[in-house]
Amino acid sequence: MSEAILRIENLNKTYTIGKRKVTALSGLNLQVKKGEFIAIMGPSGSGKTTLLNLVGCLDKPTTGKAILDNVDITTLPEKKLCEIRRNKVGFIFQTFNLLPYLSAIENVELPMENTKKSKSERRKRARELMEMVGLSGREEHRPHRLSAGEQQRVAIARALANDPAIVLADEPTGNLDTNNKFEIIRLLGKLNISQRTTIIMVTHDAQMATHTERILLLRDGKILKEKQGIHLVKKKLMCPYCGSKIQSSDLRCPSCRKRL
Amino acid sequence: MGVLTRAIKNISRRKMRALLVIIALGFSMAILISVPAGIVANQTATQALTENFNKTLSDMQAEINKTMTLIEISNSSSSMPGNPFGNSSGFMPGPMFGGSQSYMNASIIYDARSIEGVMIAIPYLEKSEGVNETMTRFGRSFTVLRTKYTIVGVSLNSSLIDNYSILPANITDGRNLQEGDSGVVLLSENNTEYFGVIVGDKVTILGKSFTVVGVHGSTGFSESTMLYMNITDAQTITGLTGSITKLDVYAENSSDVDDIATQIEALYPELSITTYKDRLSQLDSMQSMYESTLTTAQSTLSQTEATAVQEILIAVVATSLIVLFVMLYTVRERTKEIGTLKAIGFSNWNVMSQFMLEGTLLSLIAGVVGIAIGSIGAPMLTSVLLPSISTSLFGGSSRGFGPDSQPTSSGIAGAASTQVTLSPQLMLLALGAAVLLGALGSLYPAWRASRTKPAESMKYE
After folding, report:
1. Which chain A residue is nearest to residue B3, measuring alpha carbons?
2. Which of A3, B165, B244, B246 has the smallest set of CB atoms within 10 Å of its CB?
3. Cα distance from B425 to chain A (closest Cα, Å)?
4. Residue B308 to residue B35: CA distance in whole angstroms
5. Which domain holds residue B101?
6. Is B4 on the interface with A (CB under 8 A)?
7. B42 in the same domain as B173
C-alpha cells in the first residue's frame, strides 16, 4: 500500500508512582500506514492510553523511537511538540472535551487559531467540517444543547481541522449509547475512506473494534496479537458478514440485515 | 474567536461569581483611589490654610506699616479683642457684633487735637441696628445681636476724605459721600437688599428719611452691612448728639506716638488706646496662634499620609490576593480544558496569556467599578479611612457665634474643608494599577496553568 505514517521502534515508558516503578510500555513496535484505521484493545493498565499519549506528543517515552510523518517526535523540545500536536495530530476524547462556553463552530475553529489561516478561512473550513460530520445548521449551538453523539461529532470535526496526519481517538464511543456508537464508528470509517484519514482508536468495545481494519491487542505494554477487522471489506463495498454488495450509505446489509 | 473573546466569555460564564469577585475587587480598588484622593484633598486644604494665614498676616502687617502714626481710641468695653483696626480694616470682622456699644464724649476730639504732635483726630460714630436673639451652643445660651445694618457716621471733610480712608473705596453705583453731604446715605449692597431701595430712592433710617446717593461694594464680613452718612446725621438719628464711638488720632511723626498715647491715657484712663505697638503684639499673638494651628494641621497631615500608605498597601495586597485566589481556583476548575487546549496545539504561552488576560480583564472591570464606587463614595470612604484635617482643626467648634451663624474666620475654615474629588489622572492611574495588579495576581495561576501536563490533566473530570 503506501508508506508508513507512523513507525514505532522499541518504545519503552516507565512511570514512577511514589517509590514504585510502573512499566506502561516495554519494547513496543508498530507501523501504521497512511490511511489505516486501527483499533487498540487491551485490559486496563495494558498501556493503550500511554501509547496514544506518546504518539500524540502529550508525553515523552523513556526510551525508543517514534517517527510520525518523517519526524522523530521523541527527541523534540516542547515547543516543537506543540506544533506537531497542532498540525499533525487530531485528538478525540471519550468525554468529548468541548469548551462549554464556545459554540460548536467556535470549538471546531479552536485548533486553527494559532495557524496562518485567516479568520474567514477558518470559518469556511469549520463550516466544511461541520457539514462533513453531518451537523450543518447546528454551528451556533453550545455543546450543552447538543446530544452526546452530536458533541462527539463536533469533537471529530475539531480533530480534523488542521488536516492532521493522524487522528488519535481515546475511547471515542465510551460515553455513548448503542445507536450513537454506531453512528460515530460509521463516521470515522467514512472519514477514513473519503478523507484518507489515518485513525488510531483505543477502545474497550470489541464490537466497535471489529469495525476497523486492524485490531491490535495490547498486554503488559506489548502488542500481543493482531486481528483483521471488517472495515477493509467495507472499503470494497462488500458486506463483511455475507459478502453481498453494499452501498457506502447503507446502515444495514441489504441481504443479511446485519448492522454495518 | 480570539483570546480576548474567550476571556470575556469565560468571565461572563459564571455571572454570580464574577459579580461577587468584581464587587470585592471594586471595593478594594475604590479604597485604592479614594485614599490618594483624600490625601490630595487634605494637602490642598492644608496648603490653602497656610496661604490664607500668610495672606491674613501680610495684610495685617501692611496695614500696620501704613498706620504707624495711628492711635485708635475707643471705649474699652466696645473694643473686641483681636480686632485692632475698626472699620478701616478690610479683612477682619468688625467690632460691632457680640458686645454692647459704649460711647465717648465728643469733647475728646478737641482734647486730642490740642496735644502737641497730633496732626489730626478723626471721629466715628458706629451703631448697629438689629434684633437680639438667644442661641444655644454647647448647652449654654448666648444673646446675640443679629445685625441688620450698622450706621457709620463719618466726618465729611474733604481733606479727611482725600487723605484718610474714612469712606469705602469701592463704589458700585451712584457716588461716594462728599463734603457738605447731609440727609444722604451711602448703602452697602447688602443694605439695598435689606431696605429694598436703589440709588435715588428715599430710605427711612431710625425715623428719618435719607436719600440714597450711592452703593459701596465692600464685602468684608462687617463692612457688608455698613451704611455711611454724615456723623451729625448719625448722632441725630441715634439720639447720641455729642457722642462718638471711635477716635482715630494721627501723630505727625511716628516717634511721637508713644508720647501722645501716654498723654491721652492720662486724660482718659478708662478708654482703650491702641497704637501700632499693640497692633504688632496682636499680630504676633495671632501669628503664633496660626503657627500652632498649622503645626497641628501638618502633623495631622503626616499622620494621615502614613495611614494612607498603609491602607494603599493593604488594598494593593488585597487586590492581588483576590485575583490570585480566584484565578487559582479557575485554573484548577478548568484543568481538563487546559489539557484539551494543549492537546489540540495550544502552546504554554497561549495558555498562559489566556489566563493572564482573564485575570487582568477581571481586575480592569473591577477597576472601572472601583472608580464608579469611588466617585460616589470617596468622601464617605475617606472619612472612614483617614483622619481628616478639617475635623481635627475646626470640627464642630469652627462655627463662631457671629450673626447668621457665620464662622468667625469664615475664609480659613472654608478653605480647610476637604473636598474629596477623583481627578481624571487618578482614574487613569487607578486603571493602570488595576491592569498591573490583575496581571501580577494572575501571573502564578497562569504559569501553573501553562505547566499543566496535558496527559495528566485529561484524567480529571
Report:
1. A113
2. A3
3. 37
4. 6
5. 70-252
6. no
7. no
